[in-house]
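Protocol step 4 of 5: obtain the predicted structure for the target chain.
Materials: sequence only (see below). No template structures provided, no constraints applied. The aim of this step is simply to have a reference model before the mutagenesis design in step 5. Sequence pasted as it appears in the construct record:
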Amino acid sequence: MTTEPRSLHQRILAEISAKIVSGEWQPGHRIPFEHELTEIYGCSRMTVSKALTQLARSGLIERRKRSGSFVARPRSQAAVLEIHDIRTEVEALGFPYRYELLSRAERVADTEDETVGFISGTKLLDIVCLHLAGDVPFCLEERIVSLKAVPNIQAERFDEIAPGPWLLSHVPWSEAEHAIRAVNADRHMARRLGVPSGAACLVVERRTWTGGLPVTRVKLTYPGSSHAVVAHFAPS
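Step 4 output (structure tokens):
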């Protein structure tokens, strides 16, 4: 019995993966059918099927019965008890990371901000940004930062770096609190995340303090169909 050379199998994997990771093939793009790939690579259908199965297991593609294979949307597991860089999360999934600053404004805390721990009248920096995996919206970030706790943030424009990693590298935090909930995307949220209005979304809200002083409150909204919440713990 003969088998296809391993190098050919690896070539199929590498070339399809490269097209996906580079963004040439966007989420939802149909992968050539198995019979088309056998003609392209001059190999057996078994070799092609093995490569597509491996790509599906890695999460890069989705195989649909009778429809073919398609580039998968990025899937993420949001770690509940960690403060992590979204860029690292996106790149760990094998997708190119991109960041867009949508708005940046200074304002004074109002009564609504008091409900999340900021004293009314405190000067705040209000930032909204979008994190993308390739050209696909991955997470909408809405953040307020206390200028009393982090006065040097006023000089940062956030044109190149997102506020999360900037804060992690500049402000030591002593406490953090997470709240997780599911919401249906309103028209405004749906447009920014590229999902249908009313689609289920996962919202992770986090507040951090340093020495008892509130530092930031951030709301991270993810498309619910491609994210899960994971908490790892052990007996105390």
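Step 4 remarks: The chain has two domains: 6-71, 76-230. Confidence is low (pLDDT under 50) at residues 1-5.
Proceed to step 5.
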